[in-house]
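hi! just following up on the protien thing from before. the input was this:
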Amino acid sequence: MLVVVLAGATLSTGLVAGLFFAYACSVLPGLAATDDRTLVGTMQSINRKILNGWFLSVFLGGPLLVAVAVVAEVGRSGAGGAVLGWLVAALVGHLVTFGVTMRCNVPLNNELDAVGPVDGITDLAAVRQRFEGPWVRWNLVRTVSSVAAFAGLIGALLVR
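and the predicted 3d structure came back as:
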């Protein structure tokens, strides 16, 4: 049963890590090369559309499955073991990813949404400046932490 939980956790974690990686190396650099109106409008749209069942199930499912795997592994092997070490590392990566998303990226998304439609924004450059740099930096942090969680789960599977 643990292997099935680990496989599900690894799949969902890999999908999230891949999403954040794709933002970091393609979406955000692509938007950086556009004008203020395009970046602001596109990010407003993306931030609304990403709140869907597919994203939420993998974003929340990965850490939940890792937590289940940690509990199962503690019950199976006690408080030690290489698998447990990898699982704890993965869980820490997930906690960092979740924390950064909720404390940094989501508030920036909400601020961007609160300025209203791009047609009504008088200073798009200022809106972009407040949003883009911090959002890109925090996305990089959660990219690294989600890739670390993914690597931890691969380590747990290989040891298992």
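The two ends are 12 Å apart (CA to CA).
The chain has a mean pLDDT of 96.
cheers
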